[in-house]
Amino acid sequence: MTDTAVAEAPGLGLQLPWQHSFAGLGPAFYTELEPAPLPAPHLVSCNARLAAELGLDPEWVASQEGVAAFTGNRLLPGSRPLASVYSGHQFGVWAGQLGDGRAILLGELPSAGGPQELQLKGSGLTPYSRMGDGRAVLRSSIREYLCSEAMHGLGIPTTRALCVAGSDQPVRREEIETAAVVTRVAPSFIRFGHFEHFFASGQQAELRKLADYVIDRFYPQCRTTPRFNGNAYAALLEQVSERTAALVAQWQAVGFCHGVMNTDNMSILGLTIDYGPFQFLDAFDPGHICNHSDDRGRYAYNRQPNVAYWNLFCLGQALLPLIDDQELALAALESYKAAFPRELEARMLAKLGLTGADAGDREVIEGILQLLAKDKVDYTIFWRRLARHVAGEPAETVRDMFLDRQGFDAWLRLYDARLPADRGGAGRAMLRANPQFVLRNWLAESAIRQAKLGDFSGVDELLALLQAPYDDHPGHEALGGFPPDWASQIEISCSS
Ligand code: AMP
Ligand code: MG
Asked: Model's pTM, two decimal places?
């Protein structure tokens, strides 16, 4: 369909300032195609805040017309739908060509933070669907929608989500569910796997074109840095390594398990991308495996930092023909090893309200993590209570969380001695570093059960809390409390 034909489509006269820089890379990078219509779609939830950031009227997004546009039932005039091709390593094994099997990019819209790509996830078959049906179910779409905004609210780099629309169309997973489309938003959805694709297929001109695109658009400083003898591709690898290190440090600090850190799920911009079987830790268990399908625990919580490095190594290999110097590539990757512990320590010190490096910091950090693990203490609640204690409340609510009271008291003495004289100030800073609300599995599950019955108020309620997770939300305390007993029975797999 040409743009003119689309503009004549009934009901969608809205002219948006689309740009198509990714499409400008050329046909080796994607297939142009139209989304498959979703029968009788309805709005599940609209993220009014993000709509406004994109210059869209939230009421329009939530209207019948908006729902038609963001399911792909009606093409927005000037958009240029396409599915991109990529490859990747899945669970440590080369998986060959993958690509957007159920996601369709519409183009980019301007925002104060720069151009943002809009992508419909679950909008039908593409040439990259392989055995899949091109659809996403309501359950996983709500999880992705809420978690993207939860991460954004926490200040963790992530793709975002504009809205979810659902339909009664049945979709087969372990059981019959219904279809939904989540509209994702990010400066770019390019993954490590995009680079691996052109490396593995020996398309070196395309590989260079892709790297140049990413550098010019997102990492222009790589062109001017004197580092790596002016080798811009080595500088790119270093920048991506540093961003990935900062990202994973934030995951670890907040207790987030991604669940499927395959190289096709790693963003070249260091964003959290592809929310599947993710989980925020309840009880602190370093070896926790959130993905029920990950029987070997490759993506366990405490393995995420090493897996990220492994993934960067794959990216380094893919960039090697451009860097053209193995020593430089290894030196660029090396930056991860310095950046990750530095970033993690900074995050943990912020959680503890400690400023300024001290030789005893490591003992304080490791000491509390050991106690948390030994007594399987709820991770999020512990940190929030500690913040409250430092801000002025008695220590009992924190102390009561531990079986090993002596161990905790000994740690608290060590920690107290490190706290600054202005404890109130430290406490207030800690309340901005330790969230009251994270998207625990049971919270998502409750909202999903309600949504399956046609009531989407739980989704909207969580969205509002998670967009401001460091605030107290009077009347919603229970949603920041301990998980109910049934939460431990929830099994989340790759099925989505
Ligand atoms: P994921 O594990 O969700 O990151 O997906 C891995 C690959 O499978 C990507 O290429 C996805 O586009 C594709 N995929 C996942 N689910 C489906 C589906 N239901 N239909 C088509 N492709 C899918
Ligand atoms: Mg994926």
From this structure: 0.96
